[in-house]
Write a structure and sequence with these properties.
2 domains; 9 helices; Rossmann fold; 5 strands; 203 residues; 13% strand; five-stranded parallel beta sheet; alpha/beta
Length: 203
């Protein structure tokens, strides 16, 4: 089983690439952000620790008292140390979850490819876990256009988010494979097929 990290800036098209992989390869695909949200649900250790540190002000004003994404985000960026504190709780929990899934996949001998997706894979140290790190690249103007059309972002918001992430240079220096998704999706998928030659193709 090969373990591959999928990373890249917002608007690069990571999800589209992974949808193609999911349709044509014997693969397990995990999205770190989705795992984190699952691990932050009420009743979990992560939830309890986050509320203990940041207070009940990060919770929704509802009976189930789930973590409010907007409120939590405001708290995280209100002080420089807050994001680091949260990451020290969330990242190890996500990593433990993924390690369990990897061990299970190896034991079952059914999965050929194990993909982990997140914009912050490099910063979170996943380069030590994966066999290959893939950078899904798209030029800035293409990414801005996608974010404006697909998510309704303003140009200013799209650029602001992009500037908060790793630079193209940093992504390239920390990745083993570059998939150029600036053009049509088929061209990018052809690059994926070439890289995964030898693995089972599923129609």
């Amino acid at each position: 089983m090969k373990i591959i990290g999928i990373t890249g800036g917002i608007g690069g098209g990571k999800t589209s690439i992974l949808n193609f992989i999911s349709s044509h390869y014997i693969a397990e695909i995990y999205y770190a952000d989705e795992i984190a949200r699952e691990l932050e649900l009420p009743g979990t250790i992560v939830y309890d620790r986050l509320v203990s540190i940041f207070g009940e002000g990060i919770l929704e004003d509802t009976p189930d008292q789930m973590i409010d994404k907007k409120k939590f985000g405001q708290v995280l960026y209100s002080e420089k140390t807050n994001l680091e504190k949260a990451n020290m709780i969330i990242h190890p929990a996500v990593e433990n979850y993924l390690n369990e899934k990897m061990r299970a996949a190896v034991k079952q001998h059914e999965t050929e490819l194990f993909f982990i997706e997140a914009a912050l894979l490099i910063e979170a140290g996943y380069g030590d876990i994966v066999d290959e790190m893939w950078y899904i690249y798209a030029d800035d103007e293409t990414r801005i256009k996608r974010l404006m059309e697909d998510r309704g972002y303003t140009r200013k918001k799209a650029i602001s988010i992009m500037e908060s992430q790793l630079s193209d240079k940093d992504f390239r220096e920390n990745s083993d494979v570059i998939i150029d998704n600036s053009g049509d999706l088929k061209t990018a998928c052809d690059q994926v097929k070439a890289r995964l030659e030898g693995f089972t193709w599923v129609e």
